[in-house]
Specification:
- This protein folds into two domains: 5-133, NAD(P)-binding Rossmann-like Domain (Rossmann fold, 3-Layer(aba) Sandwich); 136-377, Dihydrodipicolinate Reductase, domain 2 (2-Layer Sandwich), CATH 3.30.360.
- 33% of the residues lie in helices and 25% in strands.
- It is built from ten helices and 17 strands.
- Strands 16-15-14-13-7-12-11-8-17 form a nine-stranded mixed beta sheet.
- β11 (240-247) and β12 (252-258) form a beta hairpin.
- α5 runs antiparallel to α10 (353-372) and α6 (138-148) crosses α8 (191-207).
- The structure holds alpha-L-sorbopyranose.
Amino acid sequence: MSDKQLRIGLIGTGFMGRAHSNAYRKAPNFFELGMEPVLQAVCARSDGAAAAFAKKWGFASSETDWKALIARDDIDAVDICTPNDSHKEIALAAAAAGKVIMCEKPLARTAAEGQEMVDAVEKAGVANTVWYNYRRVPAVTLAKQLIDDGRLGRIYHYRAQFLQDWTIATDVPQGGAGTWRLDAAAAGSGVTGDLLAHCIDTAMWLNGKIGTVSAMTETFVKERMHSDSGKVEPVGIDDACAFLCRFDNGSMGIFESTRYARGHKALYTFEINGEHASIRWDLHDLHRLEYFDHRDESITRGWRSIHVTDGDMPYMDKWWVPGLQIGYEHSFVHQFADFVTGLAKGETVGPTFQDAQVTQQVCESVLASGKDGSWHDVAE
Ligand code: SOE
């Protein structure tokens, strides 16, 4: 790695390829990173798509073979933005080549794949992170600060939901660009790995480890046309999942996710109830944190809606002036800024592959419980 530069090779040019590229471009304008990100190469399967993406986002070059990208000695960091079925193979090759690795969530399709990835980065000693971006929404980071300050006291309840409605129509195919999330072979699972994984990552970051789970899963549309074969094939993903859990700190958790909640596009919400105070957050209003403190004077006590835009709130001194809010894309800018700043100082910044593997293990236990209907301990 060059002393002052992090030369990035991005693999995958979909929605996340754009979100990450935006972060690489914006982070140095707003943060002191200690290292300059360089958009060195982008890789897509088709030459035209790779070249067009490179031109649009300012990458210096393009590739159509990810192995060729990894083999280049002018690439320091590999960003994996491909469907889940290629995360492991790319990560193992990138680790063997000594590259820093940034991988889209979920880490892998299964905990077994995730473990191989953790072992590979640990053996190679390469810095790594997984893009669980919601930790870096300022209001969510503020929630972490309030909990760590002890303001909530003992935590009793954690509840989270991630609701969407984009797969209700029976003619949405499985497989292929844009709809690989419906194909179990490509995605590993449905809402559990795609959406609940976010909720689980945030929950364990805020409230500690999850010990046991009991889940219910459902696949409402049992067969869909597969984009690759052109044939109607059985659907192997979970369309919806709800689970109960116990956290190691004694609190109770309830999580729900579905792609069949008509009217909801990406409604991620959580609420935490503690002995003294409660907090709740809503992705559709992501710059606000709701806070209730029972210790307030009774006649003015009530839920406060904190507009998270003041300079003493997480990340906000880097942006505009108090009162002016930021959005979804900034969570990726923050994650990258934190990761690179840590890299420049030789510090580990989460979520690491190991952190994401713990989430993977919770997902695995949830899916197993959904199948057999019994409580499952989360493997260590
Ligand atoms: C699915 O629609 C999706 O794009 C997820 O894959 C993302 O991780 C989530 O943040 C938004 O929804």
